[in-house]
């Protein structure tokens, strides 16, 4: 039976704005309060989805969330009609309104952690929604994320869904941005690689001093238990706290893996040699041959990696066994990064080609190609059980492009977030989107 790694890309929402909400994310903070273009952002993301579909990769789409989140504002004491809640929040607590309008759900690498059926005890694909409790604006996402994923992967024979972990600091979970899977073939048993920034209960692990470590070891271990993973099919590694303090807020800003290959920066991890040896040993047990590509700091600094998002790229397997790297334009604009990539692809090694995409709107808010996608390994039977409305096709691309052109604003500034009309525009758009994607009622305004 054939198997695939399907990329489900997040569709950028109608309230895409530069709120500068993510402390520790250099791009998010440095572009704070600039005007954004929701329409351009969504079209850029859709163009990447279309391109990968046309290259022969399985591609899906994951819907954005309802914003502003009026229910979240009500829980914080704002009352009245929806318009009055927004008006009062804008007047009394603008930062809370900005947080409630965040379109950060587009970074679906943080939506959940996914384990394919070949790895799990019950032979189903398992999903655990990330609690994202390190940042308030992201911590309000997981209830809707769970409903959307449930509507996409609804067949209980093939798919199992877990609620987010307890929303406390000890179990901070950032989803697939800190999770990679290595395997010989997507449908075969593999090794799941969990990267954490700190331990909540064991002070033997060093912690960063400037920026928060968002993923805990305990959260990663809990997800592995929920998914029924074998001990010999899991590797835990600690992110280097020094690179977290340089703006590497998730592992996918400093490393990316696919198949049997890990592409990583020299300074990405602690105890790197021990980690590589464990990955090699455990993958060999299931018939795989682990390989790694280390980018030396002498060629690309951590600062280069953060500013270009070299590692927040998509590493994709092609039919001939070689790999393709999908990178943002910022990699081409960085002289050292581009020189490294040219030497990498000309050396005849594992990564043979680099394709560049314009994702400026996403990049300015702190997320690149890898942030925009959630990877789900599926065999043919499981793929057939996925809600077909979310699988990208040329007609769906056309429908979504027309939908964006119809509903999205060209420009959005912080002051625009106080406009109650924006909520109505968002709800109208999302109500239509659920029909296009055949999701049913997944948003609070559709349920309540």
Sketch the major β-sheet. Answer: 3 strands, mixed
What is the CATH domain class?
Answer: Alpha Beta
Mean of pLDDT: 93
Number of domains: 1
Structural class: alpha/beta
Radius of gyration: 21 Å
CATH topology: L-arginine/glycine Amidinotransferase, Chain A
Strand order of the largest sheet: 2-1-15
CATH H level, superfamily name: Succinylarginine dihydrolase
Measured distance between first and last alpha carbons: 42 Å
**Helix amount, in percent?**
25-40%
CATH architecture descriptor? 5-stranded Propeller
Q: Which parts are unreliable, with pLDDT below 50 for 5 consecutive residues or more?
A: 22-29
- According to DSSP, the number of beta strands is 15
Strand content: 15-25%
- Write down the overall geometry: globular
Number of helices: 18
